């Protein structure tokens, strides 16, 4: 159980770094990006966390571009669509992996039975994820 808590702790730290550190440095057209966003989890507090997070994100003017798993199209919390652009990945690209990136940081995690994830601080990895994102964005549906 400690292991699972550690991964979610790292995830919340990464989200908080976007929320608090970057939130005051975003330029008018700045975004953070998510590949493989999923809301298909029944973990306690999961949906409430994202409703609260996206509400605060939008209020601070922080923008997000989300590539959401197609099977989660009707499961997004309502605040997700505030100050954001959302598209849906085709069924054949759905996995348990989520990638969040902004500036020089990327966080990759898998919300599997035994969640695992890691944080990378590296400009080149973000550049690579941006290339993937832009390609997926073109084939994703609104």
Helix content: 25-40%
Question: Overall mean pLDDT score?
Answer: 77
* SSE series: HEHEEEEEH
Total E-strand runs = 6
Assign an overall shape.
globular
Instruction: Show unreliable segments.
Output: 1-7, 18-24
N→C terminal distance: 38 Å
How would you characterize this protein structure?
This protein has 142 residues and is of the alpha/beta class. It has one domain (2-21, 32-139). Helices cover 36% and strands 27% of the residues. The chain contains 3 helices and 6 strands. It has a 6-stranded mixed sheet with strand order 3-2-1-4-5-6, with helices on both faces. Strand 5 (105-110) and strand 6 form a beta hairpin. The radius of gyration is 14 Å and the shape is globular. The model is unreliable at 1-7 and 18-24 (pLDDT under 50).
What is the fold's blueprint, element by element?
Blueprint: H1 2-21, E1 31-37, H2 46-59, E2 63-69, E3 84-89, E4 97-102, E5 105-110, E6 116-121, H3 123-139
Parallel strand pairs: 1-2, 2-3
Antiparallel strand pairs: 1-4, 4-5, 5-6
What keywords describe this structure?
3 helices
In short:
This protein is an alpha/beta fold and 142 residues long.
